[in-house]
Amino acid sequence: MVDNKLKPEILTEETVPKYLANHASDINIFPPNATVRAKAIVGGNVNYAFCVTDSSEPPRSVFVKQAPEFVAIFGPDGYPLTSDRMQRERDCYVEWRSILGEETSQKYLPTLYKFDDNWMVLVMEFLNDYTLLDHELVSPKGLVVPKSISSGLGEFMGKTHCATHSMIISKDRKDLLTKKYENREMRDIQLEFVFTKAYKEATEEQKAGLEFDDQFLKEIGDLKAAYDGKGSEDNLALCHGDLHPGSVMVHFETGGVKVIDQEFTVYAPPGLDVGSLLSGYVLAAVHQAFSCNQEAVLSICDGAEAVWKSYKAIMEEKGLPTRIIEVDSVGYAMAEVCRTALEFAGGRKWLQFEDLNVKVQARKAALTIVQNCLVSRHEGGMELMLSQMKALVT
């Protein structure tokens, strides 16, 4: 049996059941002497993750995630990291629950059963019947996205950003959040892979006519500096830090939505979260347009608008600078769309087509939206981006 006091080990499908048995009194999910099995969840890059299920009817399940001292996908000899990221993920979760209260937390967050700060393990609710939002947005079925999912995400961001915004909280509180969620190692990963690598290494073929002129690169540089904590201190909030649709679980039948994987959490411009989420809507609209799913494109455009409308209403009620956040949001959305279309975002499903010509044209359409919005967002804001998405229908 795994002993929590021993030196931490990397969990495997074979050892996870023993680990949970050792912590049965803390987790209190499986009945005594239950037979449980763990299955590794593939697709993540940074951590190890498992679904653990017992043999009861209906079966009970939990989600187990462990942060090693390296990027899991590269192994122990690859990219080193500190496992402290799991501590920050848990701390952010606790902050959110305090902000949202019990009822709203249950609406938007999975239940956390245990955090082990020795083994750096989270044991959480396994979201049966939920799927990743990014998978649904590019579904070949062209599913209509329930408005409650999009407006709910706007509400979640609005409430958590408002409660921690640097214009509202005290200086001491702001200083505490700035230090606690500086998250330097994870932030440095984003600085390299989101704001730097694509613009240094993209070929002319990948750019498909997109021009990296001085003004374009200045805009990317300004977004990068603000994310790195070198911008204004008047517009900061506790952010998820990587809130793309792959960090959102949804239930289409009920309209349910749960936010997960906040290990990149930072105290940064709130437009970072809004833009990261909306980048998925932009890319999905392009993807569905080139899959000839016009109804899905319209639904996705409506969803993006619902995210912003819900979010903006909450921020305006508190007198927060929505125009600045709006411009930032479009900027961060375009930065994410750009690096994804340039194929510097790993194995994401956006714009992947078997027909090479369709793939090239879809990528060019996405980069055209970037070209039209990144610089001009200062005047056109969210309306400009939404109009570019809606134009895909024609």
Write the layout of secondary structure elements.
Layout: H1 16-22, H2 24-27, E1 36-40, E2 48-54, E3 61-66, H3 85-108, E4 112-116, E5 121-125, E6 131-132, H4 133-137, H5 147-164, H6 171-180, H7 184-193, H8 197-201, H9 204-207, H10 214-227, E7 237-239, E8 248-251, E9 256-259, E10 266-268, H11 271-289, H12 294-317, H13 322-341, H14 356-373, H15 377-390
Antiparallel strand pairs: 1-2, 2-3, 3-5, 4-5, 6-8, 7-10, 8-9
Helix pairs in contact: 3-5, 5-12, 11-12, 11-13, 11-14, 12-15, 13-14, 13-15
Notable characteristics:
single chain; 394 residues; Phosphorylase Kinase, domain 1; three-stranded antiparallel β-sheet; 15 helices; 50% helix; globular
Q: Give the SSE order as H and E letters.
A: HHEEEHEEEHHHHHHHEEEEHHHHH
Q: How many runs of DSSP E, i.e. beta strands?
A: 10
Largest sheet: 5 strands, antiparallel
CATH topology of the largest domain: Aminoglycoside 3'-phosphotransferase, Chain: A, domain 2
Describe it.
This protein is an alpha+beta fold and 394 residues long. Helices cover 50% and strands 11% of the residues. Helix 3 crosses helix 5 and helix 11 runs antiparallel to helix 14.
